[in-house]
Every structure is written in C-alpha cells, then in structure tokens.
Amino acid sequence: MNLTGMITLVRRDLKDETAPYRWSDDELTRHIDRAVKELSERVPLPAMALLPTTADSREVDISSLEDRIMVQAVEYPVDEFPIRYQRFSVWGDTVTLITGDIPNGGNCQVYYGTVHVLNAAGSTIPTKHEDIVTAGAAGYAAIEMAAYAINRVNIGGKSTPREYRLWGNARLETFKDRLKRLGRRNRLRSSQLY
Asked: Most buried one in 27, 132, 169, 186, CB count within 10 A?
C-alpha cells in the first residue's frame, strides 16, 4: 500500500469519499503520519548499520542512524562465529559498550528500530497493521473536525462537534488499545543476546 491508498481507506472510514471533501489530502496525510509514528514506537522497522568504533574507546557514535527509535543489539567484533553481542547502554547519540574487548577502531554492527515509511512509492508497514494506522488517522481527523466545527454554522446542528468528538475518541481508543496489545514494551520476552 502507498500513501494514496491509505488516504482512500481513511476517507472510507470517515465517510468522506465524494468531492468536495471535508478533509484535504494534506490534512489526512498529517494524521496518517502521526498514526504511523505511534505505530513505529510500538513496532519499529528493523534496521542495522555498520558503524566505526574509535580505538581505545567504548563509545560509538550513533547520530547517523536517522529516525532511530531504539537500539536492540550491538555486535562487536563483526563477522565472527558465534556472533559476539555486547552488553551496552544508550545515552543520547552514543552507545557505550559495557562488555567485551575495548574496540580497536574496527566496525561494529548496530541492530536498531526506526520509523516506518509510508509515501507515494510504498510502505514498510506490515499489511496486518494497516487497519491500525487507518483507525488512528481517522480518529485524529474526527477530533480535528470537532474542534473546527465549534461555533460554526453547519447542517448537522449544534451536536455536530460533539458527535465528531465522540466518534473520534472511540476510534482513538480502539487505535491505542490495539497498539498496546502489540507493543514491544508490553511483551514478555525471554532472550539473551550476549
């Protein structure tokens, strides 16, 4: 799926499928981006990068890892079997290797999670999670419309802002609940990388 397809799904949920549209594509894109970022916090896109170490220093600069959400593992030295994962800590844009030999300037492999991509070219969001993003984006759009409709004349009457708010909150509750269920922070895992 690409961004255009996601906008179509969100419009379908909002019953906004005929022109003139209540929400512009730019508005829906902003709400979709917000939902994608929240999904990425729970289920980040796996990535890895080969980064240089500094001789006689346990600190590795990870500032080049764009849209990094978390660091899962650090392998040092690389290309050994069995793989040697190191215990580490993260502070800002620096990973500090706690165990293993002091680096000699060779490379280390950093396994991390990053933000999912959803644009005109395609998406990295798993198909099974697309409806979660749709629910979140539709909820945010409805809440925005509720705020916009206050003190405005509309054909729905005085209750229009309230109805948008109630519907939007229900969608956001579903969105947050589904995110909670698949979140990496709420999962009980038994694993050891080092």
From this structure: 132
